[in-house]
Amino acid sequence: MTAPDLKTPTDLKSNATKSVAEALNGVLADSYALYFKTKNFHWHVSGPHFRDYHLMFDDQAGQILATTDLIAERVRKTGNTTLRSIGDISRHQTVKDNDADYVSAADMLNELREDNLKLVEALRATKAAATEAGDNATEGIVDDWTDQAEERAWFLFEAGRNA
Questions:
Q1: DSSP characters for 42-58?
Q2: Residue 93 has pLDDT above 80, yes or no
Q3: d(CA 35, CA 27)
Q4: What is the dihedral sign for C-alpha 147, 17, 96, 63?
Q5: Dihedral, 87, 92, 94, 98 alpha carbons, nearest 10
Q6: Fewer CB in 10 Å around end: N or C, the chain?
């Protein structure tokens, strides 16, 4: 059976939207990797600030997960396809996994802060690709995701001052 065409109609040029979709798919992969790492740290944090960090990591993981559907749907709205599996995520992610048996709370805060700042960089690159493509819808929505990632990095920085 021939697969149906998944190309969503758009007035944007396909070469330009492909660039935006690639950037968005990278952000999506990193968002899933960051989500899972944040949940991992939520589950395994220990120490005197356990409750505060446990709750903050859970809040941040929920915020990250909430963006994933929006990112994937934006890819589809531009006439492209998005990630399809955990393997696909691993091929596109730049956020490194952390499979260590033990990570100190201070190291968790620092690592998540740096990962959120890397996500900010990827989001800025995505916005630049969207600007070049004339994709004002992606330009606008990326601003919100950038602000959220910057806020997460800020909270992690402040929490880590006395960790």
A1: HHH--STTHHHHHHHHH
A2: yes
A3: 12
A4: positive
A5: -10
A6: N
